[in-house]
Specification:
The chain is an alpha/beta fold. 58% of the residues lie in helices and 13% in strands.
């Protein structure tokens, strides 16, 4: 940035103070711009190349015309002609942008919904064609004045000499209009527009300076023209030159109010053309200028009125789906008059597991799903229903009680699968409903009630519809208070509670040796006492705290392993559970390796347990777990056998241990259980994967599992989860052989329960 500005400053100063070099600086800049444009096209390969070719043609024609005018003054007609053709190239660039942009807008514009009605449709039509009408009016007036000029030129005055000022008027209006109407312009585009405006200013200064005999103006014109050419050297060197004429970038308009202001320069063109006609030849009747000016002013006023109406409509609409937004919903609800005789129902619909869609397929697929849901709700709703998007993945329906109930409408809308990223998949939703019987109700209270009902529907197992009941408020408030306490506990506020890690041994079934232990979090709440993880982990997932909890457990468990080694207990591995949030965390590998480094624990002493029924996105955590496995960490698959993707997980992740769910190991007496377990053991052996049986609660169960070839077990019969201090005592009592007290190598045992 500094170097180009320095060069531009040097060019401007040199051209202003040494007029003899100004023309050569202009030529070098123009031809350098041509070379720079070709280099930029080859280097950056923009998709829109035609506009750049027109810029190159403009530079060549403009510089050639100036060169001929200086070297061969008698060929001034040819020089002026080349300059006019160069102006036409610039006009071609602008018109190409207008035409391409308009086509793109027509292709991408979403059709207005029924709420837009005549106001919105008329507004969009005027928005779409107001610019075009103004451009057509300007071009028609310019063509008419050009034809009149060609018929009235005196001898010795070339037509091109008369056309160049007219072309300058048109160009500067178009460029200013474009510059003021865009919300964001790439730097290359801004540089090109500034160069064009400077060229026009230079021409004006040259004409005025010649008429007044002002050397200062003529020198300034030469300096500005030279700097303008060097801007064309700079622009193609910018990486943004790929977006300079890209319709997607240029589609980002300013607000309608700002665009309306940008129309004002166009409305002044008839006045300027009239003045130019007074100065020379080709003046049209004054009535024509007045008529065109009045028409253009009326078009601008019509657009202004439509802009106001459209902005009012748009302020109450969700831009993406076209449904009412929160403001629009409140406004629509104020227009209905519910009563005990004619009640209305308000339903809030929340898509279940919408975050899963975003995490798996990306936010673009999630946005597309929202549009599909909005379309379904429109199709299923009857006339008179109010439909809106409340925010995120929440939709609102307001309809008379006599219509189809919200539950039926929700079921119909979500009955058929949706297309998500090219895949057909079922999508479910939970809904909360409240009944409106008075128009005097506070909207915030109404939305609070329906929001509470949605929470109750989610808590009831999702894919359900719950009607608000005052008792739900206490339940939800209790839930929210628990989340608040959970967050405070994570922040170290002991007044809310403390976390503890309990450890449950993993035992070799044949020998009773303790091979490792699983770290299990407990929450000692300040008022509610000890809370098991199945009562708060779900809350942590939905409130975004699960990842922090997993990291806390990981670090605490590794510190405990380090303490056991420091106390001479020996090397033992610890198994730590990873929830869904952690599996989706791209920083998981770095955080885990850093925790191992800080605690000094060997990677082989850490097992990470992933849960099969978490329904993780297909690629979630695959690379992370591969990196950790390469470092020496082992991966276990927990709750194996209760979902639908167990075998897929074995292929997807570097699993080295299977933990059989207790639902498989608890019914060993049923006929299918033994063959199933035998098959799992055989498969694990072929894959060189260890098998751990969870939920061992009796001695016959342990013996049977050992007979089936399952090497490791875990359960209350062997040892309950213990606080860190009790687990330390147990390991000391077990001794170097790490036998559970009372366990003999032959396999008979007396289990000591240290949980009391």
């Amino acid at each position: 940035m500094v170097l180009p500005l320095t060069v531009l400053s040097a060019v401007g100063v040199a051209a202003a103070f040494w007029p003899s070099v100004a023309f050569w600086l202009f030529l070098v800049g123009a031809w350098g711009g041509v070379v720079s444009a070709f280099v930029g096209l080859a280097r950056f390969r923009p998709s829109e190349r035609v506009a750049w070719y027109l810029v190159i043609a403009m530079l060549l024609l403009f510089s050639t015309g100036k060169l001929i005018g200086v070297a061969q003054p008698q060929l001034s007609v040819l020089a002026d002609g080349l300059t006019f053709v160069a102006q036409s190239c610039v006009l071609g660039v602008v018109l190409r942008l207008v035409v391409i942009r308009r086509r793109q807008m027509q292709r991408s514009a979403t059709p207005p919904d029924e709420g837009f009605s005549a106001v919105g449709e008329q507004g969009r039509s005027i928005f779409r064609y107001a610019d075009l009408l103004l451009l057509i009016g300007i071009c028609a007036l310019v063509v008419a004045q050009t034809l009149a000029t060609s018929l009235t030129l005196p001898a010795g005055v070339s037509m091109a000499e008369r056309l160049v000022p007219v072309g300058n008027v048109v160009l500067v209006c178009f460029m200013v209009r474009f510059l003021l109407s865009r919300a964001r312009l790439p730097r290359a585009t801004v540089l090109g527009l500034l160069a064009g405006i400077m060229i026009v200013c230079s021409d004006v200064m040259t004409v005025v300076g010649a008429a007044q005999g002002s050397v200062l103006l003529e020198r300034g014109a030469g300096a500005i023209l030279a700097v303008a050419m060097w801007l064309f050297v700079w622009a193609p060197r910018e990486p943004s030159m790929t977006e300079a004429f890209d319709v997607v970038s240029l589609l980002q308009s300013r607000s309608e109010s700002a665009r309306l202001v940008a129309l004002m320069p166009l409305a002044g063109v008839p006045v300027v053309l009239y003045v130019l006609g007074q100065q020379g030849h080709g003046r049209l009747p004054a009535l024509i200028y007045v008529s065109v000016g009045v028409v253009m002013a009326l078009v601008a006023l019509a657009r202004g009125a439509s802009a106001v109406r459209f902005n009012e409509w748009q302020a109450e609409r969700d831009w993406y789906t076209g449904l009412l937004n929160r403001r629009g919903l409140v406004s629509a609800m104020r227009r209905i008059e519910p009563s005990p005789q004619q009640p209305w129902q308000l339903a809030m619909i929340d898509i279940d597991d919408f975050k899963h869609v975003n995490d798996t397929f990306g936010h673009e697929a999630g946005d597309d799903l929202l549009v599909q849901v909005a379309d379904r709700l429109r199709q299923e709703s009857q006339d008179g229903a109010i439909i809106g998007r409340f925010g995120g993945d929440e939709f609102v329906l307001v309809l008379p009680v006599g219509h189809a109930c919200a539950a039926e409408l929700t079921d119909r809308a979500f009955a058929a699968p949706f297309t998500v990223a090219g895949h057909e998949m079922p999508v479910r939703a939970s809904a909360g409903v409240t009944v409106l019987e008075s128009s005097d109700r506070d909207e915030s209270q109404t939305f609070t009630e329906v929001d509470i009902a949605v929470y109750a529907a989610k808590a009831a197992g999702k894919n359900t519809v719950v009607t608000y009941d005052p008792k739900h408020r206490e339940q939800i408030l209790g839930r929210q208070n628990l989340i608040t306490d959970l967050r405070r506990t994570l922040q170290g506020d002991r007044a809310a509670g403390t976390f503890e890690v309990h450890y449950q041994p993993l035992v070799e079934l044949g020998t009773g040796l303790i091979s490792g232990c699983e770290a299990l979090i407990r929450w000692r709440h300040a008022e509610r006492g000890m809370i098991r993880p199945d009562h708060f982990i779900g809350l942590a997932e939905t409130s975004g705290l699960a990842g922090e909890i997993d990291r806390w457990v990981l670090l605490e468990a590794l510190h405990q392993v380090a303490r056991w080694e420091a106390e001479g207990i020996g090397s033992i591995y610890v198994s730590v559970n990873l929830g869904r949030t952690s599996m989706l965390d791209p920083a998981l590998a770095d955080a885990t390796l850093e925790a191992l480094r800080v605690t000094g624990v060997e990677p082989s002493q850490l097992h990470l347990e992933i849960t099969e029924h978490d329904e993780l996105p297909r690629e979630a955590g695959a690379l992370t777990l591969a990196l950790l496995t390469e470092a020496g960490v082992r991966v276990s698959l927990d709750d194996f056998g209760i979902g639908y993707t167990s075998l897929d997980y074995l292929h997807r992740y570097p699993v080295r241990q299977l933990k059989l769910d207790r639902s498989i190991t608890s019914n060993l007496q049923t006929a299918p259980s033994s063959p199933l377990l035998e098959g799992i053991v055989a498969m694990a052996k072929s894959l060189q994967v260890d098998v751990v049986a969870e939920g061992i609660e009796t001695e016959p169960q342990r013996e049977r599992l050992a007979d089936l070839g399952i090497a490791y077990g875990q359960g209350y019969h062997l040892c309950r989860p213990q606080p860190a201090e009790a687990m330390t005592s147990l390991l000391r009592e077990a001794g170097p052989a790490r036998l559970i007290p009372g366990q003999r190598a032959e396999g008979t045992q007396t289990v000591i329960d240290l949980s009391s």
